[in-house]
Amino acid sequence: PRAALTPPPAMGIKNITYGEGCDVVKDPLTIAIWASVLLAARWVLHQVFTRSWAKRMLGLSTKGKLSPAESLLTEKFCKYFWHAIVYLGLFVWGLSILSKEAWSPFKTGSLDSVWVDYPHNSSEKPVLKAFVMAQVAWYAHGFIESLIVDKFRNDFVVMLVHHVMSAILLLGSFWGNAHRVAIVVCVEQDLSDILMYISKMFEKAVAVPWTQNNTLRSYLLVQLTVAWWSTRVFVLGTLVFKCFVILGPSGLFTIGGPGAHYLSIFLIGQLGLLWVMQVMWALGLLKMTVDQLRKGTFSDFFHDSKKNEKKLESKSQ
What angle (nearest 5°) sits at the alpha carbon of residue 114, between those of residues 112 and 117? Predict the structure, then answer.
């Protein structure tokens, strides 16, 4: 008869020391200053260059008064450009860190290294701290920006929740020595953000005829869909699954158990919810891509709300 398989022994979790490498006074102040700098940089860039350039790309008047819907479209285009360049900078920064760390999946060839030996050594944190704080500042900036630009999106509330959740996840993971997962999730998310905002600019730039080429539009959508499903659905989903496989036997997530850590339970719950949100957007993106390939056109029902924009027009009359 076949020998019965015995489960692997629980790996055990070392005592988690919260707040190592954190300054509860200076760090929040630094994040607030960086978020303010990002908002100021955004405003200056739009005033000096992006807004007038966006109007030309959109085929709108650069001198006359715009309608509310045209003003909103201009602000959207400015946001796409701003987000594309910032996410590119954050992606390169995060990638350069991961390329040097011995635990990085790029070095080990496995996502297991993100969770093995959790909680991770605080000696790894200094090189990651500025990056994590910059990401939190970016999400704080994004929350305020969404209140200005995104209030006519169909998924406006979901976006606000996403910004808050992402900031909490980053802060909580760094506070509880789960900093490895923080940077890996940021990098995999940033890649599809870059492709998304570039694709959005091409879609909206109707004054530049070659950007409206159907083959190009199809290619950009397919590329974005593949990147989104590969990173935000597969990689992030695998990270959540591996967390339970590797850390579950330790009793870390057993509520009421002797090995339970409630910050860890909260963070993995938030990470799982973030993955569900990404799947929701991924399914919508897949529908857009199928529509584009089959019909040669698609409706961005997340970013663009014709119903809300009509309400905006009617209020201005």
Answer: 85
